[in-house]
C-alpha cells in the first residue's frame, strides 16, 4: 500500500484527503518514484478549486517532487532503479509516497542538490529559467517589475535577475517580504498595500518605466502592470493568484503604447526532453555556482497538505514549501 492525497470534488482545502492506494506499476516509457519530498505550488490550488479542471475525479494532486526511482517500465533508457531524480510536470499525483509518470519528464539529480531543495525548486526554478532567459532573453541592464517577489517563484527570480545584472523591482504585501526580496537581490521593492505601484515605478525609473512586467497575480494587477511598461515593452502574464484575467479588449495594448503580451506556461517551454534537460542544466548550474540558493522555508507532513495550501493561498508564506511523505 502507498499513501496519497486526493480530492473527489473541487473546493476548499477540506476536500483533500489522505488515502491508502495499491501501488501502481509503471507502464511502457514510465517510471515509479518513491518521493522523498514534494513541492507545493499555486497551480495545485487552481486544480483543487476547479479553476483548472483535473482530467478525472477523484484525482491526485501536485506535479513537483524528488526521490528515488523504485520501478522502471519497458523502453526506459535513461533511468534505473535507485537513481536520485526530480520532476516538475504532470500528470497530477505528486502529493504521494509513490508517483508513476512518463520517464521523459524525469531528470537525474546532481549530487550537490538534496531532495528537499529539488522538490522546492524544480517547477519554480525552471519557470524562472524560461521567464528570464527565453520568454524575454534578459541581457543585463534592463529594468523589470516582478509581482510576488518574496514567494517561491519570486525568491528565485530576484536572485537570477541580480546574477544577470537586471534591476528587478519586486511587489510585496509586507515589510518582512520586502526585506526578504532585497536580501535575494531585488533592486527595489514596492509594498502595494501602502504605495501606488505605477507612481513608485515611475519614480524609481525616472519616468522610463519597465522593459518587462512579470505578473502572476492576474486579475487584480493586469491594468497596473500594463501601466508600468515602456512603449512596445512586454507583459508576461503567467499566473492567476487573484483570479484569471478575462474579458480583455485587445485595443488596450494599443492605448498603452503598442505593447506585447504573452501568457506562457512551463509545459509550453519544457515540451521536449531536450528542452527540459537544457533548462535543468541552466538552473542546476545556477545552484552549483551559488548564485541561487533555494529557501526551503516551510515543511509539512504529507497529511497536512490542506494546511500547507491554506498558508500559501492566504499569503502567509515566503520562499518555498515542501510536503514530506
Ligand atoms: N505559468 C507558469 O509556468 C507558472 C509556473 C509556476 C508558477 N506560476 C505562478 O506563479 C505564481 C507564484 O507561484 P508560487 O507557487 O511561487 O506562489 P507564491 O509566490 O509563493 O505565493 C503567491 C503570492 O502571490 C501574492 N499574491 C498577490 N495577490 C494574491 C492573492 N489574491 N491571493 C494569493 N496570493 C496573492 C502573495 O504575495 P504578497 O503577499 O507579497 O502579495 C503570495 O504570497 C502563481 O500565480 C503561480 O500560478 C506560473
Task: Describe the fold and architecture.
It is an enzyme of class 1 (oxidoreductase). This is NADPH:quinone reductase. Its EC number is 1.6.5.5. Residues 11-323 form the Enoyl reductase (ER) domain. With 325 residues, the protein is of the alpha/beta class. The chain has two domains: 2-121 and 294-324, Alpha-Beta Complex (Quinone Oxidoreductase, Chain A, domain 1), CATH 3.90.180.10; 140-263, Rossmann fold (3-Layer(aba) Sandwich). The chain is 30% helix and 26% strand. It has ten helices and 16 strands. The protein has helices at residues 42-49, 115-135, 152-164, 175-183, 197-204, 222-227, 251-255, 266-269, 273-288, 305-313, and strands spanning 2-7, 17-21, 30-39, 59-60, 65-72, 84-87, 98-102, 106-108, 143-146, 167-172, 188-191, 210-215, 229-237, 260-262, 296-301, 320-324. The strands form three sheets. Strands 3, 5, 6, 7, 8, 15 and 16 form a seven-stranded mixed sheet that branches. A six-stranded parallel sheet has the order 11-10-9-12-13-14, sandwiched between helices. Helix 2 (115-135) packs across helix 3. It is globular and about 60 Å long. The model has no long low-confidence stretch (mean pLDDT 98). It binds NADP nicotinamide-adenine-dinucleotide phosphate.
Question: Summarize this, please?
Answer:
This protein has 2 domains: 2-121 and 294-324, Quinone Oxidoreductase, Chain A, domain 1 (Alpha-Beta Complex), CATH 3.90.180; 140-263, Rossmann fold (3-Layer(aba) Sandwich). Helix content is 30%, strand content 26%.
Amino acid at each position: 500500500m502507498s499513501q496519497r492525497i486526493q480530492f473527489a470534488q473541487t473546493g476548499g482545502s477540506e476536500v483533500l484527503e489522505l488515502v491508502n492506494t495499491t501501488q501502481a506499476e509503471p507502464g511502457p516509457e514510465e517510471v515509479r518514484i518513491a518521493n522523498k519530498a514534494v513541492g507545493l505550488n499555486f497551480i495545485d490550488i487552481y486544480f483543487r478549486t476547479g479553476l483548472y479542471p483535473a482530467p478525472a475525479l477523484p484525482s491526485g494532486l501536485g506535479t513537483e517532487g524528488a526521490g528515488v526511482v523504485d520501478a522502471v517500465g519497458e523502453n526506459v533508457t535513461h533511468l534505473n532503479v535507485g537513481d536520485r531524480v526530480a520532476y516538475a510536470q504532470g500528470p497530477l499525483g505528486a502529493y504521494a509516497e509513490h508517483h508513476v509518470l512518463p520517464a521523459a519528464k524525469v531528470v537525474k539529480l546532481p549530487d550537490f542538490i538534496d531532495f528537499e531543495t529539488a522538490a522546492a525548486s524544480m517547477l519554480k526554478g525552471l519557470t524562472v529559467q524560461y521567464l528570464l532567459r527565453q520568454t524575454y532573453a534578459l541581457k543585463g541592464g534592463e529594468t523589470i517589475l516582478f509581482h510576488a517577489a518574496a514567494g517561491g517563484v519570486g525568491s528565485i527570480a530576484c536572485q537570477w535577475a541580480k546574477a544577470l545584472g537586471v534591476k528587478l523591482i519586486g511587489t510585496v504585501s509586507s515589510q518582512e517580504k520586502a526585506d526578504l526580496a532585497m536580501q535575494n537581490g531585488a533592486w527595489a521593492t514596492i509594498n502595494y498595500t501602502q504605495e501606488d505601484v505605477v507612481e513608485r515605478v515611475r519614480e524609481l525609473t525616472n519616468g522610463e518605466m519597465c522593459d518587462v512586467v512579470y505578473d502572476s497575480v492576474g486579475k487584480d494587477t493586469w491594468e497596473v502592470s500594463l501601466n508600468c511598461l515602456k512603449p512596445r515593452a512586454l507583459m508576461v502574464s503567467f499566473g492567476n493568484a487573484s483570479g484569471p484575467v478575462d474579458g480583455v479588449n485587445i485595443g488596450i495594448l494599443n492605448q498603452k503604447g503598442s505593447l506585447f503580451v504573452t501568457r506562457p506556461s512551463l509545459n509550453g517551454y519544457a515540451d521536449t526532453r531536450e528542452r527540459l534537460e537544457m533548462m535543468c542544466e541552466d538552473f542546476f548550474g545556477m545552484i552549483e555556482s551559488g548564485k541561487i540558493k533555494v529557501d526551503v522555508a516551510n515543511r509539512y507532513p504529507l497529511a497536512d497538505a490542506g494546511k500547507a495550501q491554506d498558508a500559501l493561498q492566504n499569503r502567509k508564506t515566503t520562499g518555498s514549501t515542501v510536503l514530506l511523505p
